[in-house]
Write a structure and sequence with these properties.
Layout (H helix, E strand, L loop, with lengths): L8 E4 L5 H12 L3 E6 L2 H15 L3 E5 L5 H12 L7 E4 L14 H29 L2 E6 L12 H21 L4 E8 L5 H14 L3 H10 L9 H12 L10 E4 L9
Parallel strand pairs: 1-2, 1-4, 2-3, 4-5, 5-6, 6-7
Helix pairs in contact: 1-2, 1-8, 3-4, 4-5, 6-7
């Protein structure tokens, strides 16, 4: 299937590893010129090098913290290369820490909002106006299955990512007539490096091995396993494609059937 992305310019945030890296690689495989960022410059450059080597497509790594205005602006300007435009914007960020209402202070709410909501809004503000002028664009937010079914112990993610989903739905309506689509991909349990780290830390707290933690999460999924990052990336690439031109304002869950709701 031709996704029609050859020559398109894509930016992918937080893409030195995990789902972000997989999304950047998948877009590059489809022929897009990819610019990825990470707060760690060495990781960003190395990730881009690996993707370019594997796909034969241009990929550039940029050091940027998308919770900072100046970093986000520099990242986008690098991708534009002067007078160019960004066609595809994949917003992504690390997860907020696990907390409950009783253990969460106001500063943690503020940091979570900056990380998991404003980082996406910031990038969209930089790229959407030109997308509308050119009458083509894709904004894809990598969120979490918690927007469909809140996860116990993840108060901050449940709160902030749900807010981002409402923002994305509103934006999608405002820009639809200009050929710009806005969608969310909501991963379920996904076996990434970060999830392995979470399994290790939570396992210590609960007296379990990381393998036992992962097996417990996988047992909740009807498919009987956790997702691979590449499976989430495939959904991102589809929503970025010409084939998805009539899909906007949706939150696509990629969760192996974990959410029991029919909506």
């Amino acid at each position: 299937m031709d996704f029609g992305l050859n020559g398109r310019v894509a930016i992918v945030a937080a893409a030195s590893r995990g789902i972000g890296y997989a999304a950047a690689r998948e877009l590059a495989r489809e022929g897009a010129r990819v610019f990825l960022c990470s707060r760690d410059e060495a990781r960003a450059v190395e990730a881009a090098r690996k993707i370019a080597e594997e796909t034969g497509t241009r990929c550039v790594g940029v050091a940027a913290d998308v919770t900072k205005d100046e970093d986000a602006e520099r990242f986008v300007e690098t991708a534009r290369g002067g007078d160019g435009s960004v066609d595809i914007c994949v917003t992504n960020a690390g997860g907020s820490p696990a907390t409950t209402f009783a253990t969460t202070d106001l500063d943690q709410y503020r940091r979570a909002f900056e990380l998991n909501a404003l980082s996406a809004v910031r990038l969209a503000r930089l790229v959407v106006p030109r997308m509308r002028e050119r009458r083509w664009g894709r904004v894809i937010n990598v969120t979490s299955i918690s927007v469909k079914q809140p996860i116990d112990g993840l108060l901050l993610s449940n709160t902030v990512r749900a807010g981002l989903t409402g923002w994305a739905k509103t934006l999608s309506t405002e820009v639809a007539a200009d050929g710009v689509t806005v969608n969310n991909v909501a991963p379920g349990w996904t076996l990434t490096e970060r999830q392995a780290e979470v399994a290790e830390s939570r396992g210590r707290a609960e007296g379990k091995t990381s393998e036992e933690m992962i097996a417990g999460w996988a047992s909740q999924v009807p498919l009987g396993r956790m997702a691979r990052a590449e499976e989430i990336a495939a959904a991102v690439a589809f929503l970025a494609s010409e084939r998805a031109s009539y899909i906007t304002g949706v939150t696509l869950q990629v969760d192996g059937g974990w959410v029991r709701s029919i909506f």
